[in-house]
Amino acid sequence: MVSRNPIMTTPEEQFTVGESDFAFFGSCPYRIEGGALLFCRGGSAVATIDQYRGEVRADTMLLLLPGSVFLLADRSEDFRVTYCAFSLDLFSEAAFRLDPAFFAALREQPIVRLHPRLVEGASIWFQMAGYTYRDRDNMFRNTIIRNRLQNVLLEAFDKMQRFGSRRQAVSETTTRQTELFHRFVSLVHENCAHEREVTFYADRLCISTRYLSTIVRSIAHTTAKEFIDRSVILEIKMLLQSTDLSVQEIAYRLHFPDQSYLGRFFKKHTGESPTEYRNTKK
C-alpha cells in the first residue's frame, strides 16, 4: 500500500493535526511546502532537515519551516509522531513581523529533545490544536488556529534558547551571510511599504544585488525579489483583513501608482483580486 503524505494541506484545509508513523518520508528527500511541528511519541529515527541531521526519539520536537527539505531514515517499526501541519499562507500570517533572529535560531536547530519539564506542555498544546482542528463549526476557527501557531512558534523560540544545546560554531563566511540576511529581513519589514526593488536593499547593505540574491536563496530558498514581494503581499492582506480601508486607500498607503496597479500585483501573486480576497476572508 502506498503511504500518504500526512502533513499535506489544501486551500480548503490549511491546517491538520494527527498521528502517523511517517513512512511516507522514508524513501527520499521531500521539500515542505507549508510547514509542520512534529512531536515524537515513541520509537526512533534519524531526521535530516536541510543540512541539519539529528536523532529522533520519544519527546523530540521537530520544526519543519516552509521550504525545508526533510528526510527520515532508519525509522523503527514503532515510530510514532503527533503532528500539526499548516499551509504557507497560514504560516506567513502567523509569523509576520516576528523577530528575524527567531527564524535564524529555528533554522539552525530544528530538532530538539525536550527538557522533561516541557514535555507535558507540548502534549497539552497538541491536544488543544487537535480540539481546534476538530471543531469545524467554530466561526473563529481560522483565527484561533493562526494564533495557536504564533504562540507555539514563540514558545519554541524561547525554549530552544533556554534549553537547546549549542551547535558547533559555523564558519566566518556563513556567519557573515546570516548577519546580512537578518539585516535584509529587517530592512524589508521596515521599507517594503514603499521600496520593492532589490537594488534599494543591496545599496543599504553595501553589497551587490547578485550577492544579496545569493545569500537570500541560500538561506530562505527563494529569490530576494520574491521575498520582498511576499512581504508586500502580506502587508496588503493584513490591511484588507484588519481595516476598512478601500483598495485605493491601501494603494496610496503602500505607494502603488494607483488601485489598478495594486490589483494586478496582488492577483499575480495570489490568483485573486484584493476585493475577492477580502470577501473570502469575511
Describe this structure in words.
The longest helix is centred in the middle third of the chain and has 23 residues, at 141-163. The chain has helices at residues 88-95, 100-108, 116-134, 141-163, 172-191, 198-205, 209-220, 224-242, 247-253, 259-270, 274-281, and strands at residues 15-20, 30-31, 35-42, 44-49, 52-57, 60-64, 69-73, 80-86, 111-113. 51% of the residues lie in helices and 17% in strands. The model is unreliable at 165-173 (pLDDT under 50). A 5-stranded antiparallel sheet has the order 1-8-3-6-9. Helix 1 (88-95) packs across helix 4, helix 3 (116-134) runs antiparallel to helix 4 and helix 8 (224-242) packs across helix 11 (274-281). A hairpin with a 2-residue loop joins strand 4 (44-49) and strand 5. The chain is α+β, with helices and mostly antiparallel strands.
- Rg on CA atoms, Å: 20 Å
How many strands?
Answer: 9
Name the structural class.
alpha+beta
Describe the main β-sheet briefly. 5 strands, antiparallel
In what order do the strands lie side by side in the largest sheet?
1-8-3-6-9
Head-to-tail CA distance between termini = 41 Å
Helical fraction: 40-55%
Tally of alpha and pi helices = 11
Beta fraction of the residues? 15-25%
**Broad shape:** globular
Which spans of ≥5 residues are poorly predicted at pLDDT below 50?
165-173
Mean pLDDT score, rounded? 83
